[in-house]
Amino acid sequence: MARSNEEWAALLGSTLCKMARVYGTDAPNAYLPEECYPVIEKTFDVALEQARAEGYAAAMRDLQQQARATRTAATRQRPSVIGQLMRSFALTRHLA
């Protein structure tokens, strides 16, 4: 199951805090060293990939639900063979 936005934010925030502690950059205006950027970049890559996959899956579910709704509506509107046959008998009796 994919992580929520809040979970990704918590993960990234916790990663940044841990990196700041390890490198001794607790000041709010301090910069993280260059070695931290690949970790942050990979976190964003994974988050975006999962978000795209979840968006694609949600779109596919919506399309499938629409297709099912269309099919069921079409079968409800289409009279059955037996129904047509019964109507033709009644019409034949009425015209005879």
How would you concisely characterize the structure shown here?
This protein is mainly α and 96 residues long. It contains three helices and no strands.
For this entry, give a set of tags:
96 residues, mainly alpha, 3 helices, 0% strand, rod-shaped
Topology readout:
Elements: H1 5-23, H2 37-77, H3 81-95
Helix pairs in contact: 1-2
Protein model, in words:
With 96 residues, this protein is mainly alpha-helical. It is built from 3 helices and no strands. The chain has helices at 5-23, 37-77, 81-95. The termini are far apart.
The biggest sheet, with number of strands, parallel, antiparallel or mixed sense and barrel status, is: none
Number of strands: 0
> What percentage of residues falls in helices of 4 or more residues?
over 70%
Shape: rod-shaped
Number of contiguous helices: 3
Give the class from helix and strand content and strand pairing: mainly alpha
Catalogue the unreliable spans: none
Task: Write the H/E string, N to C.
Answer: HHH
Strand content: under 5%
Radius of gyration: 30 Å
What is the averaged pLDDT score? Answer: 77
Termini, distance in Å? 67 Å
